[in-house]
Structure formats: structure tokens, C-alpha cells
Amino acid sequence: MDTLEAWIGTAGGQLWTWIVLPVVAGLGLYFTIRSGVVQFRLIPEMFRTLANKTPTDAAGRAQSVSAFQAFTISAASRVGVGNIAGVGTAIAVGGPGAIFWMWTMAFIGGASSFIESTLAQLYKTRDRDAFRGGPAYYIQRGLGARWAGILFAIVLILCFPLAFSSLQANTISATIASTTGSDGAGINWVVGLALAALTALVVFGGVRRIASVTQSVVPVMAVLYLLVGLVIVGMNVQEIPRVFGEIFAGAFGFQEIAGGLIGTIILTGVQRGMFSNEAGLGSSPNAGAAAAVTHPVKQGLVQTLGVYFDTFLVCSITAFIILVTNPDLGSLEEGISTTQDALVSSLGSWSAVLLSVIIFLLAFSSILGNYYYGEANLEFISTNRALLTGFRMLVVLAVLGGSVASTSLIWTTADGIMGVMALINLVAIGLLSRIAIKLLRNYTEQRKRGLDPVFTQDQVPGLKNVEFWQDADTVTGPLRAVKTSRRG
């Protein structure tokens, strides 16, 4: 087993160093330039579109989940172990400088996130009482390569609802075991069975139940964690200048460059950043495609906001929780223990219980978001209901298995699969980016005329294999009729 883990780790490291990292950074910069820095220029639009009303069908029901609900589904997957254990691991491996590169790649990756989620909206398909879509769909419809779409779907299923959900469950189990002082497999099996049961109750209820659960859980978990972090930072406010100094010095310091550590620092920051915010990875477009909006760009903007929420708020709070306590960086351990120790040293032993609650909310909501991504991609491969039922059972078993399994092999394997998944998606959105840029221009032109943008496919000539955006009545439903009558 150790030999297998070492081989996977070596192969994954080579993949990230020589292929994934240059593609992530290069395409992110390219999208930033081509879009006119959309990830910064249209920040006000991100907040405006987040609160847009959901278009309805002929019966007056919402066409699908709202923009905000799709945002929370993707946030449920983003905000999880990566924000706590992942940031702790980044600091333990790459030092404080890794946080700077997480921030940098979140900003650059915001453009990638915009492109992928805009394309997901454009090429989405109707799925009973909702929409579904994502990279597999725009690879097939935009590039005409169904085989590549199937390949992406398989990789995503292996990565998110199986490997990543196992990792989330493992972190919940480890945190509860540490908090209760329990040792041995007994507590892990108890936690695993409870998590598996809760997961089954939600995933067998479908996407609307997932949306309703995450819409309630994500704001609670985010506010709770941010408040705890702000309290700790406030208690150590005098340390903030030192922390910023360490972050920037670690990112550009002469000692790091001379010691050959700068490459490790950058790679760690980018890798942990992508694991956390998922910008360009190809996961969040699966949630973005589910939203009912009147223009594809709207959900592209909303999903970009999700990258900022994840990294600049939640990840930064974790980094400051750790660094304001002035830890001995040479003795930090990878994983959840680094953050847990920082909390206890600032607030006392009772905060370990609080962290267990926060970890549960973060990680369990990630399990639900991961499941939805898997379901959307499984249905791309096949709509056989028996296959879907089997997949749901497999997800429940993965949660149970992850609760009692060793963590190291799961982390190593997940990192490698994540690199493959990101590479497939980034190449696809690079080839299709010209279409997303045309959609962005269409959106900004309508906004300049004072309109709430409504897109139909005839507004961008030459589009092929687009299922939904035929006419304004289909896109907006009765909502448009009401607005028109009011003008009249």
C-alpha cells in the first residue's frame, strides 16, 4: 500500500508541476485579458444577479433552482475540508507564502470560473423539473466530442462523489474522535454509519432537496466559521501586520528563492487553492448549469463570486486563525490538527467541540454538493434509473468507507485525479472561450442600454447544438409578460 501511495504521489506531483500548473496559470491569464478583467470589472453585477428573480414556467413554478440556490450548491462543495484542513496543509508544506499564491490564483481563476459556468449555462439541457449541464455537456455540444465528455464525466465521478466525499467523511470522523478523546475504530464506525444514513436521506430526495438543504446549511456554516475566525483575529489584532509580512515575505523572500523552495510554495498554493475554490476545475459549472436565469453570463458572474467567497473570506480566515497564534512553522502537521490546535490555543479546549460542529456542517454540505455533481455527470453517460440508484448507494458506501479508512492514500489519489479533471476541462474551455466572450459582450451591451439582459441564441450567430435559448418567452416565461404589460 505504501508503494502504491508513493507511486501515485510521484505521478501526481509530476503532472501538476509540468502540465497542470502552467495550463491553469496560462489560461487564467488569457481569460483575464480576453474578458477585460471580468472577475474585477463586474463585481457589482455579481451581487445584483445573485438576487435576480427566478424565471417561471407556464404554471407559475420556478423553471429550476434559483441563481442563489445554484450558488449554494457549488458553495457547499467548495466550502469544506479544503478551507480548514487544506489551508492548514498549505501552510505546513509551503509556509505562509502559499497563502499569497492561493489569493493570486483565486483572482486569476475567477476568469476561468466565469468562462466555464457561462458555457455550462449556454449548453444546459432540460431534466424533468430542472436543468442539468456542465463540462461534459459543453464538451459534447460545443466541441462535438462525446467521447471526451464521457471521459470527463467518469473522472469527475471518481473524484468528487467518491474520493472527495470519502475525504470529507474522514475529516468529520477524525475531528469527532479527537474532540471526544475516543481512540480506535469504534467511534469511526458510529460516525460513519450516522453520516451514511444522513447522506442517504438527502441524496435519494433529488436536486431540489439538495438545494433546499444547502440553502439553509451553507449560510449558517459560513457565518458561524467566519465569526469564530473574526473573534480570534480580534483577540490577536496586534499580530496582523506580522502575518501579512510573513505571507508576502514567504511568497517572494530571498531565502525561499535561494533555497529552491519557491516552486514548492507556488505549487502548494495553487494546488490547495484549486482544491478549495475549484476555479477552472470543472465542478462548479455542474451547479451553475442547474440555475434558471435569463442570460448565461448571469450565472458565470455568480459562480465567480463563489470563488471569492471561498478563498478571500473562508480560506483567509483559516490562514489568519493559524498564523496569528504565532505557531512554530517547522512543527506544523498536515491536515485538520493545525487549525484545531490554533483554535484551542486561542479559545480554550471547548473550541474543539465548536470546530467539530463547524467541520460537520462544512464537510457534510460538501458531500451533498459532490453528490449532485456526480449525478449530473452520470446522467450524461446514461439516464438508466437503475444505474442512478446504484450510484446513490455507492456514494453512501463511500461516505461510510471514508469515515473508517486511512486518509493519506485518499488525499494523494484525489490530488492526482483532480489534476486530470482540471486539465480536460481547461483545454475544453480554452477552445470554447471565444463563445463565452461573445456572450459577455452581448450582456454588457444590454446593460449599457439599461436592460435586464435576456439572451436568445439568435443574438450570437453561428451557435450550434444549443437546446434551451430559442426565444425570449421560453427564457423568461410569464415573468417577461408581466414586465411587458407594466410598461404598456
Structure characteristics:
single chain; 488 residues; mainly alpha; Amino acid/polyamine transporter I; 2 strands; globular
Question: Overview of this structure, please?
Answer:
The chain has 488 residues and is an all-alpha fold. The protein has a single domain (2-471), classed as Amino acid/polyamine transporter I. 77% of the residues lie in helices and 1% in strands. The protein is built from 21 helices and two strands. It has helices at residues 2-34, 38-41, 43-50, 67-78, 81-94, 97-122, 135-143, 146-180, 185-203, 207-235, 240-252, 254-258, 262-277, 284-288, 296-323, 336-347, 350-381, 385-404, 407-448, 472-476, 478-487, and strands at 125-127, 130-132. It has a two-stranded antiparallel sheet with strand order 1-2. α8 (146-180) crosses α19 (407-448) and α10 runs parallel beside α15 (296-323). It is globular and about 60 Å long. The N and C termini lie far apart (72 Å).
